[in-house]
């Protein structure tokens, strides 16, 4: 779009406006405001050559809507891309650093997550092995002889009672002061005492059967 050219003949720096005398149609000056020159590297001064486009206002006067100072650089257009490029570069560096940190930490996390399950498995194996050793080293329980019906029938009456009670209560021990039948609780206990404990007085006739009236009758 073609631009008109003119000379800035008046300028009020405090209020930010002035007037251009165009090369063509010089009979009417053109109003110009600082807002249309905001992209310039410096403020306008009287005598500057101005390139401009105008529009006619309601009062019939012309006003510059697009303008530039001839020979003066435009800085606003170049400042924005440079700033944007700088910000983008910083963002890219930030993202790259974050990715590098994440990548450097990931092998540590991976190896840590691998070690924990292995330690748990090893602990379970050791515990199971110790339990197996303790089970094998446990002393075996003495077996109690099993009497058949024929064995019971062949035994004398007192011996049958003695074996039966001995099987039910397999263990006795000699206690001081227990020497008479009144101290006994069964034929088996009396038989145990006359066979293993000294000074018993429970077999008066010496036939090997104690307490015939009380327990082994």
UniProtKB/TrEMBL annotation:
Ranges that cross the membrane: 111-129
Record keywords: Membrane, Phosphoprotein, Transmembrane, Transmembrane helix
Pfam families: CSD, Excalibur
Biased composition (Polar residues): 83-99
Renumbered residue ranges of the record's region Disordered: 83-109
UniProt-recorded name of the protein: Excalibur calcium-binding domain-containing protein
Domain of life, source organism: Bacteria
UniProt keyword annotation of Transmembrane helix present: yes
Keyword Lyase tagged: no
Domain Cold-shock as annotated: residue spans: 5-70
């Amino acid at each position: 779009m073609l631009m008109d050219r003119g000379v800035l003949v008046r300028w009020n720096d405090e209020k930010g406006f002035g007037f251009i005398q165009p090369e063509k149609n010089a009979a009417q000056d053109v109003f110009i405001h600082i807002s249309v020159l905001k992209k310039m590297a410096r403020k306008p001064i009287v005598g500057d050559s101005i390139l401009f486009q105008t529009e006619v206002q309601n009062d019939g006067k012309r006003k510059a809507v697009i303008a530039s100072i001839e020979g003066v650089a435009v800085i606003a257009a170049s400042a924005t891309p440079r700033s944007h490029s700088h910000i983008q570069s910083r963002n890219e560096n930030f993202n790259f650093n974050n990715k590098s940190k994440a990548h450097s930490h990931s092998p540590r996390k991976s190896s840590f997550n691998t070690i924990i399950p292995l330690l748990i498995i090893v602990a379970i194996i050791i515990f199971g092995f110790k339990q197996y050793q303790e089970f094998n080293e446990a002393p075996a329980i003495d077996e109690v002889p099993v009497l058949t019906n024929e064995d019971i029938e062949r035994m004398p009456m007192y011996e049958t009672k003695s074996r039966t009670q001995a099987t039910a209560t397999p263990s006795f021990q000699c206690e001081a002061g227990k020497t008479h039948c009144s101290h006994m609780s069964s034929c088996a206990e009396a038989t145990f005492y006359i066979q293993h404990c000294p000074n018993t007085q429970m077999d008066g006739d010496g036939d090997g059967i104690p307490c015939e009236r009380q327990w082994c009758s």
